[in-house]
Amino acid sequence: MKENFIRPGFSLLEVAIALMVLGVLSSILIGSVRTTQKHMQLRTTQERMEMIFASLAAYALRHARLPPPYNPQDESSCVGKVPCQDLGLPPYVAQDGWGQAFFYAVQKTLTTTEALSFENSEILSGEKSFCDTVQGELRAQELLSEEGQPDPSRLIAIILFSSAGVSPVTSPFEGSVLNEEKARHGIVRWVTRDVLMSSYGHHPCPHQGRTGSTVPVPISPSELF
Predict the structure, then answer these.
(1) DSSP H helices in the chain
(2) Which of 29, 77, 197, 213 could join 176 in a cystine, given CB atoms 3.0 to 4.6 angstroms apart?
(3) Neighbours of 208 (CB within 10 A)
(4) Which of 167, 215, 181, 178 lies closest to 195 in space, CA to CA?
């Protein structure tokens, strides 16, 4: 006698459950990959900012001034791209982890070549010391005092800004002032002149202690994702 064997198959319900499980696993995997990618992009951005700050401090020690930005958007405010050629850095360092160029803002007074030195010789020779330069046009809204005037002990030397992948990329600077409303979705790092030289240049300014800070402080925490 010939027996008929019926091979069991999958019901529609079983197929639907299997597809649902695969979908959940895929979403978890994709989410994990995206999270890892974002962390890598953020870490790359932070590492390159550190490289730029260190190179700027080394440049200042050699030349007693800071380099102006490459391709400035506003000559009066010294805002533009990181001058990699002047700093001896490869071009990719001027880009954040998302492949977008950093905005580099520098206190214009510290980029002048006339009569700047690291010696406190102003009384003897009339020269201005890099460390004792008290003028500063680079501003962040948060750093204004209660009277609305900038705190002279917290004069900003450099600001680096990454838009953190936000498109379109627009400058958060209005002239010499960083607009924090525009910068809140990006990554902002700034250093004072004293912190730049003490933390990155290992050459503390005579009055470095009055700033009360020895490490770069972000103007606004990064609310990225």
Answers:
(1) 12-63, 84-87, 122-125, 180-183, 193-195
(2) 77
(3) 18
(4) 215
Instruction: State pLDDT tens for residues 63-78.
Output: 888 999 988 876 666 8
Q: Which of 115, 113, 87 is nearest to 102 (CA)?
A: 87
Residue 132: C-alpha distances to residues 32, 90, 122, 156, 197 (Å): 50, 32, 9, 13, 12
Look at strands 128-129 and 177-178 and give their pairing.
unpaired
Cα(151)–Cα(153) distance, integer angstroms? 6
CA dihedral over 81, 224, 138, 74, signed as positive or negative: positive
pTM of the predicted structure, to 2 decimals:
0.71
58 contacts: CB under 8 Å, gap ≥ 6: 200, 201
Q: Of 97, 111, 213, 202, nearest to 153 (Cα)?
A: 213
- Render pLDDT for 13-62 as a digit per residue (tens, 0 to 9): 777 787 787 777 777 776 666 677 888 999 999 999 999 999 999 998 88
Question: Where does residue 196 rank: exposed (0-12), middle (13-18), buried (19+ CB within 10 A)?
Answer: buried
| Cα gap 24→47, rounded to integer Å | 35
Structure tokens at 148: 């609305």
CA 19 and chain centroid, separation: 44
Enumerate the β-bridge partners of residue 106.
158
Q: Where are the extended beta strands (E) located within the chain?
A: 70-74, 79-81, 103-106, 116-117, 128-129, 139-140, 156-162, 173-174, 177-178, 187-192
